[in-house]
Amino acid sequence: MEDQLQKAKDAAYRYLSYRARSVAEVCNKLREKEFAAAVVAAVVADLQRQKLLDDREFARRWVEARLPRAHGARKLAQDLRHKGVAAGVVDEVMAEYAPALDSGELAVELLSKQAWRYRGLAPDKAKRRMLGFLARRGCEREMARAAVEQIWQELAHEVEGD
Fold first, then answer.
1. How many helices (H) and strands (E) does the chain have?
2. DSSP state, 36?
3. For residue 43, what are the domain limits?
4. In 3D, which of 150, 159, 71 has the Cα closest to residue 108?
5. pLDDT tens, 59-92?
6. What is the number of structural domains in the chain?
7. Which DSSP letter does residue 138 get?
8. How many CB atoms lie within 10 A of CB 37?
9. Which residues of 126-138 are buried (b: 16+ CB within 10 A; e: fewer)?
10. What is the pLDDT of residue 109?
11. Are residues 109 and 96 in the same domain?
């Protein structure tokens, strides 16, 4: 048993050495390696005691790392749930970052980088594509519509200025 415990700890440390992981990801990895449930529970408890495993901190880092790439709140929450972070922790962390995620500036920034793709398209087609682009990034519908209108106005002024 002690030998299995040490092997499981070594596997967990190695798995955590690449990047931060959620508790569920570590549990799944150790189960994949066919360690007993009691061994997995002991290793996870030890890692949590050492502050090497903390879903709240993992979720915060996950969101912070993706803020510059303008992911929407819905997409980030979905990704965290997919990683096994508890719904309560996801909701708490998303509420913490709500001002940055819900400002609409992220959607506008993301679209402005992609604006060149929509030049020369019919207005309906361009707007539909912009909305789809933002929807795939998890932006809320109203925020996406406002961003699309803003970017479309900017594109229209560029055309008038030419």
1. 10, 0
2. -
3. 2-49
4. 150
5. 999 998 887 666 678 888 999 999 999 999 999 9
6. 3
7. T
8. 10
9. bbeebbebbeebb
10. 81
11. no
